[in-house]
């Protein structure tokens, strides 16, 4: 029999020759992130095998003990490191007591008991770290919203620079459709900006020179020149990230009480254990008997349930909330839920769907147009625009099965709407300012209808053919179907006030407040 030595490189070469890739870095990264929980599960598996073998299958004591000792190593690896760091920092915590208790159990010959103690405690530690890692990943995802580089004009030249190196009053060029990299003021250009990630506004906001913009918001179809008013470290997004990190670091009152108790309890137990070992032999008691009693006290006094109960219950609550789409930023906030009398909800994406939808299609009797024809014409003009409002019109036509009209020419008019040409006819789609510029005549009843729609918080598109207005299309961020019933359910369980927070305009806010049954927080 010939045994050929095969090294790792040859195996990887053979696997790649078959057309497969080995995600080595991915595996290393996964192992690094999950090592603690992997060690804990290995410890639990070894403990289970040893106990089942010894109890039911007559496994020799030596083999079972070897399995338990190996479980000690895996289960106690990280706990012992935590305990050592605590000793170096000159304070005692539950980690140290758990390690001492496990060693005490081993001294009594109860290896299974000690391995179980280390397994439970290491698993609790691992789950807690996993939850914290997910929280940190959420903060990193928030940081990824902001661009890392910006196109800057300095000394008449345009160059890409890291956002961190920008200075106050630098002029940043923002191309259409990209995220704005800095907090600043527009010095040149007009565009609609999607600010939902910062202010929660459901509709893009038209921006003109002199208006403020925020880092991580999305520029629309117009190019902008933005003067930097805040450094990257002081931007609105950076301050939001800092607040989130501080909230995640907060501990619940119960956890704080447990930690204060640990600072007194752990050294007290260790001191009493030492006294039980030393004092009885001085009065004639056998040393072995006093040592056994001391170890028994140490194991019995280990606050495993106390140390694991509070973090485990809080983590379970946070995890369950996350499965249902609710982000709880710390154990303190989770405990406070039981005492709440008022809850504030963000409007965009929570009370509402978070994206504009067509709500009304109005045709003027004098035009002779049908609603489907008006929608077809508007969708044809808007189909070449990437603006969220334009896409909502196109989406409405597709949903209703209305064919989209073919346009020969489309011109975007930033901040106003667009002009399109079909079969020699000019079509105008946009706001009232565009209608005035195009010389479109607006009847009194049409203006009255538009005002009534705007009073309900809706955004309007006027549609005109040449110089004649033919109809209106109203859009809004629509209310979630379950919003009103949720507010009623909260009031039934003791929440007296349900408040809606929004950066949207007052009319839209009031409309959604009335529809959902919540209260708007006064400005």
Largest sheet: 6 strands, antiparallel
Global geometry: elongated
Number of helices: 17
How helix-rich are the residues, as a percent range?
40-55%
Regions with little confidence, pLDDT below 50 for 5+ residues: 1-6
Rg from C-alpha positions? 33 Å
Tally of strands: 18
Percentage beta strand: 15-25%
Average residue-wise pLDDT: 79
Strand order of the largest sheet: 2-1-3-9-4-7
What does this structure look like?
- With 523 residues, this protein is an alpha+beta fold.
- Helix content is 52%, strand content 19%.
- The protein contains 17 helices and 18 strands.
- The strands form four sheets. It has a six-stranded antiparallel sheet, with no helix packed on it. Strands 11-16-15-14-13-12 form a six-stranded antiparallel sheet, with helices on both faces. Strands 6-5-8 form a three-stranded antiparallel sheet, with no helix packed on it.
- Helix 4 (94-107) runs antiparallel to helix 5 and helix 5 runs parallel beside helix 9 (304-323).
- The longest helix is centred in the first third of the chain and has 33 residues, at 24-56.
- The protein is elongated.
- The chain starts with 7 loop residues before the first helix and ends with a strand.
């Amino acid at each position: 029999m010939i045994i050929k030595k095969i090294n790792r490189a040859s195996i990887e070469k053979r696997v790649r020759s078959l057309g497969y890739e080995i995600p080595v870095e991915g595996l290393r990264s996964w192992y690094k992130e999950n090592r603690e929980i992997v060690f804990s599960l290995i410890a639990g598996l070894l403990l289970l095998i040893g106990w089942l073998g010894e109890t039911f299958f007559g496994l020799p004591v030596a083999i079972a003990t070897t399995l338990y000792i190996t479980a000690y190593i895996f289960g106690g690896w990280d706990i012992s490191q935590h305990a050592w760091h605590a000793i170096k920092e000159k304070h005692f915590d539950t980690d140290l007591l758990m390690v001492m208790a496990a060693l005490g159990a081993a001294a009594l010959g109860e290896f299974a008991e000690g391995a179980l103690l280390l397994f439970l405690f290491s698993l609790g530690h691992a789950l807690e770290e996993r939850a914290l890692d997910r929280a940190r990943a959420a903060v990193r995802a928030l940081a990824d919203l902001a661009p890392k580089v910006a196109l800057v004009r300095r000394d008449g030249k345009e160059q890409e620079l890291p956002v961190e190196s920008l200075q106050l009053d630098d002029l940043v060029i923002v191309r259409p459709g990209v995220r704005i990299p800095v907090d600043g003021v527009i010095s040149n250009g007009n565009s609609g900006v999607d600010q939902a990630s910062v202010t929660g506004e459901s509709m893009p906001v038209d921006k003109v020179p002199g208006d403020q913009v925020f880092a991580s918001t999305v520029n629309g179809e117009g190019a902008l020149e933005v003067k930097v008013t805040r450094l990257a470290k002081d931007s609105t997004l950076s301050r939001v990230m800092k607040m989130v990190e501080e909230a995640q670091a907060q501990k619940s009152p119960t956890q704080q009480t447990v930690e204060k108790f640990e600072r007194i309890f752990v050294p007290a137990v260790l001191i009493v254990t030492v006294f039980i070992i030393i004092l009885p032999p001085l009065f004639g008691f056998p040393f072995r008997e006093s040592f056994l009693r001391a170890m028994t006290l140490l194991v019995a006094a280990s606050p495993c349930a106390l140390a694991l109960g509070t973090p485990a219950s809080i983590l379970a609550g946070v995890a369950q909330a996350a499965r249902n789409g609710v982000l709880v930023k710390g154990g303190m906030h989770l405990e406070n839920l039981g005492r709440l009398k008022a809850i504030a909800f963000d409007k965009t994406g929570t009370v509402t769907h978070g994206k504009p939808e067509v709500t009304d299609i109005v045709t003027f009797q004098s035009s002779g147009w049908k609603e489907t024809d008006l929608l077809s014409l508007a969708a044809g003009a808007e189909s070449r625009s990437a603006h969220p409002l334009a896409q909502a019109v196109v989406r409405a036509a597709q949903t209703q099965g209305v064919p989209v009209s073919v346009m020969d020419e489309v011109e975007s008019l930033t901040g106003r709407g667009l002009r399109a040409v079909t079969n020699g006819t000019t079509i105008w789609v946009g706001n009232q300012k565009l209608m005035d510029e195009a010389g479109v005549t607006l009847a009194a009843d049409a203006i009255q209808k538009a005002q009534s729609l705007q009073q309900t918080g809706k955004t309007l598109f006027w549609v005109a053919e040449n110089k004649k207005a033919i109809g209106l299309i109203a859009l809004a961020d629509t209310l979630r179907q379950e919003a009103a019933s949720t507010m009623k359910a909260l009031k039934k369980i003791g929440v007296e006030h349900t408040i809606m927070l929004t950066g949207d305009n007052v009319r839209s806010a009031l409309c959604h407040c009335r529809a959902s049954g919540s209260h708007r927080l006064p400005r």
